[in-house]
Amino acid sequence: MEELNTGIFTHDGARQYLEREPELHVDQLSTRIWTICDDVRRTLFIEADNSVIAFDTLATPGAARAYRKAIAATIPNKPVQTIIYTHDHLDHAGFAADLAPDAEIIADEMCAKVIELRKAKGQLPPTQCLSGNRNRLTIDGFELMLLNPGPIHGTGNLGAYFEHEKILFSSDTLLPNARYGLLPDYHIWNLVRFMREFQQLDWTTFVPGRYEVTDRARFDKGCDFFIAVKAAAQQAFAEFVPIWELDAMEAYVGGKLREQFGDLEGFDENIGLIALRIVHHYLMGGWGLEDTWNPGVLLADSLNDPIAE
Fold this sequence. Notes:
Blueprint: H1 15-19, E1 25-28, E2 33-37, E3 42-47, E4 52-55, H2 61-74, E5 80-84, H3 90-93, H4 96-99, E6 104-108, H5 109-118, E7 128-130, E8 134-139, E9 142-147, E10 159-162, E11 167-170, H6 191-195, E12 205-208, E13 214-215, H7 216-238, H8 246-261, H9 267-284
Parallel strand pairs: 4-5, 5-6, 6-7, 11-12
Antiparallel strand pairs: 1-2, 2-3, 3-4, 8-9, 9-10, 10-11, 12-13
């Protein structure tokens, strides 16, 4: 049987899921930028002077192969020579070995640390690591800015800003709907305050890492929705709502927010899960160092490092 990249799956029963090549949808955003989606996950690829720059790899080795074929059909005769990981999660950046095994791979330094320690099969280690909040790069004649304002999603998350095209890409963050129900991987304490920094940039099109491309107004509404859920989740304590019960949180938070945000797609199906996740953030105190006011300590060798001061 052909060897298969499996990420961190250990059971042979996952093979069918990993091998399947999903149907992908490609849309052109500008002269040199395309977005591609498998109906759930979304990413970008770019036509550079002599090659292609691909963000992420999609969710499985089969999806990565389908991604490679879609790129080749869209931009013939230019190989994928650069892959940019937006964060460490395998369902977005886990299978460079299937997309372009010889490509240069760019990632944030924290993302690179996780990949090195995880050693997932198919997730190739970065060849170039970035640090800091903003990095202007020119890759094969194409200029872009990679942004890491702070912990938002995953580890070492990188967004991309295309100044001339007025496009902002930030994987898995602030969708223009409520379909991403459990919010299992947002850094809740810091998410909105760092996402608000993106509003200082001049862009009109927002490309999230899931679902539909959207605009600035819907981005703003995503921020407002997240803040409103956090407020309602805290009010649940004051009113002694049984926060461990899905139905109770769904009824309470849904009732508080339906008038303002009930038009968001997926609201009724997911508001309970979203509220349950967030209310326990307050009960437990967060999910680690990234959910503190000074997440920069993640880059420190010790708590006494000057970055933590």
